[in-house]
Amino acid sequence: MSADPLTDEANSGSKIVSSEGMRISRSVLLVLLLTLAAIAADQLAAPILYSTSPLWGTLACLLLIWRRGGTSLSSDEIIGSRPLSAARIAAFVAAHIALVLGARALSLELQPVAGALSLWGALFAGLKLSVLLPTLLLLPLAKWRLAAQNYRSEFIAALVVLFTYFPRRAFDSLWPWHGQILGRFVFFLAGLLVPGLGYVSTLTPTLTGRQLDVTILSACSGINGIELFQTLFGLIAVCDWNRLRKGRALFGYFAGLAFMLLGNALRITSLVVLGNHGLSELVSRFHISAGWIFFSLVFLVYLGISYRWMLGKGKNAGSSIPSSEKAEPDGVLRPPKTQTHISKI
User: What is the tally of structural domains in the chain?
Assistant: First the structure.
């Protein structure tokens, strides 16, 4: 008896691809672990570089690649495979040291422009993100290209986290414009139900009513709802990463941000309406704690609307996927099993 030579060749090729993919996966995991540690060290050594964005972006990429499967975070497996050269690690460390020394030397000049809406403010924000640049030294270009092909969705998700997660400083900077838009929108909605409502256009817009005046502070911008949404959405993404339709999840994320901002406008509108219809004392006492409850309910409504859609569930959801390529129980697509043809002599 002899096995089909074409099948043997296919099996050999799949083992080579699988082995290469495992090496890339371990390399990327080690790169992300080193990057996370280096960023934390940079920010401790040079506080002027402090920003949570690089930390969250790197952590998100690390968790999603790990959650996808195919390797583990075991130190024995990662270090034992020796995916990185000593020369590249030395260059990586040297680049971070140079970055820290440069930031400390320029800290007095950079401090006044921190958070400013100007060219220098933008350059300063870019400097904080430059802590990610030495990571490129850890792998050769060919491996980065292969990693980008294998982990395209994870890298895109990490970029989304890097530039959008927990944007409190951005909200504070944009408040003079965002506050007026929010105030005018709430005034329009509440004016439909509160006769004689007035509007005072200041840095903190005030809606004047017959029983209660409501001032919209920058803390009422909706940032708390945005951060709550991002935390809960991130947990769902990590837990269900292998089941999510990545394009739908990306759209659902930005739609959810808009949904939470709309929910915040409705929250303030309800306070104005209730406060001017005999419940002013109740509104004044419980509006802060009620805000968290309201944002939680808004998120649950959003999740009820979008969750099954992001998973791709529904009628004929898997009809376009051949049965041989459907996901295994862990949610990862596997190649079809190769059948060995046996011939008799």
Answer: 2
Residues 103 and 17 in one domain: yes
- Inside any domain, residue 321: no
**What is residue 1's DSSP assignment?**
-
Residue 248 belongs to domain spanning: 169-313
Q: Are residues 59 and 183 both part of a single domain?
A: no
Whether residue 7 sits in one domain with residue 140 = yes
Q: pTM of the full predicted structure?
A: 0.80
CA quadruple 126, 131, 134, 135: dihedral sign: negative
83 neighbors 29 (Cβ within 8 angstroms): no
Torsion angles phi and psi, residue 333, rounded to 5: -70, 130
d(CA 27, CA 235): 25
Centre a 10 Å sphere on the Cβ of residue 140 and count the other Cβ atoms it contains.
Answer: 11
DSSP calls for 198-243: EEE-SSS-EEE-SS--EE--GGGSSHHHHHHHHHHHHHHHHHTTTT
Residue with tokens 């509006």: 287
Residue 342 lies in a domain: no
Dump pLDDT digits (tens) for 225-273.
999 999 999 999 999 999 999 999 999 999 999 999 999 999 999 999 9
Give the CA distances from residue 89 to residues 44, 86, 135, 165, in Å, rounded to whole numbers and listed in that order: 20, 5, 9, 29
Amino acid letter at 258?
A: A
Q: For residue 343, what is the enclosing H or E element?
A: strand 342-343
- Whole-angstrom CA distances from 225 to 127, 189, 228 are 29, 20, 5
Examine the domain organization and report whether 297 and 264 are in the same domain: yes
Q: Are residues 158 and 83 in the same domain?
A: yes
- 330 belongs to a structural domain: no
Residue 339 lies in a domain: no
